[in-house]
Design a protein that fits this description.
The protein has about 160 residues and is mostly helical. Helix content is about 65%, strand content about 0%.
């Protein structure tokens, strides 16, 4: 039941991503849409499928359903990001590849933030940052991993030493 509830919430997430300003890069749009959604859910006074992850262990009791849920979430993210990319002028020629990479990357970053939050809960770390702060930190860490201008650095052709 929980997996179905989470899958049912995916359109809310994807529509939030699509509605973000066009000038935001894809992963920035995902980060800001997810953070806004979490803040909105926190303000609700009734439980939702999304709120189950805010104050409990993520994916607790889901077992094998996690892989299915992850794939569905990646596909939903890729679809939303593909729609955003298609609205660019000019639209990139490789929209499907970019959307798939961005979607999978976004889900991996979000999973990393959820896992870190769970680790902090399990160790009783106090004060523990809000989940939204952990998500922002995870997206920042991912973007720092490439380094400024890294896409323009030519590959030197060097492989591992033998």
């Amino acid at each position: 039941m929980l997996v179905e509830d989470l899958v049912a919430q995916m359109p809310v997430i994807t529509e939030s991503i699509k509605a973000r300003p066009a000038e935001e890069p894809p992963l920035v749009a995902v980060e800001r849409a997810i953070v806004a959604l979490i803040e909105w859910v926190r303000d609700l006074h009734e439980p939702t499928a999304v709120s189950l992850f805010l104050d409990r262990r993520p994916a607790s009791g889901l077992g094998r359903s996690v892989a299915t849920l992850t794939l569905k979430f990646e596909d939903a993210m890729a679809s939303a990001l593909g729609d955003r990319l298609a609205r660019l002028d000019p639209a990139p020629a490789d929209i499907d590849l970019r959307a798939a990479v961005y979607g999978r990357t976004a889900v991996a970053i979000l999973r990393s933030a959820l896992i870190r939050d769970l680790q902090l809960r399990n160790t009783g770390a106090e004060p523990r940052p809000l989940l939204t702060e952990s998500i922002r930190a995870a997206f920042a860490a991912a973007s720092e991993g490439w380094g400024p201008g890294s896409a323009s650095i030519p590959f030197d052709g060097q492989g591992p030493s033998r």
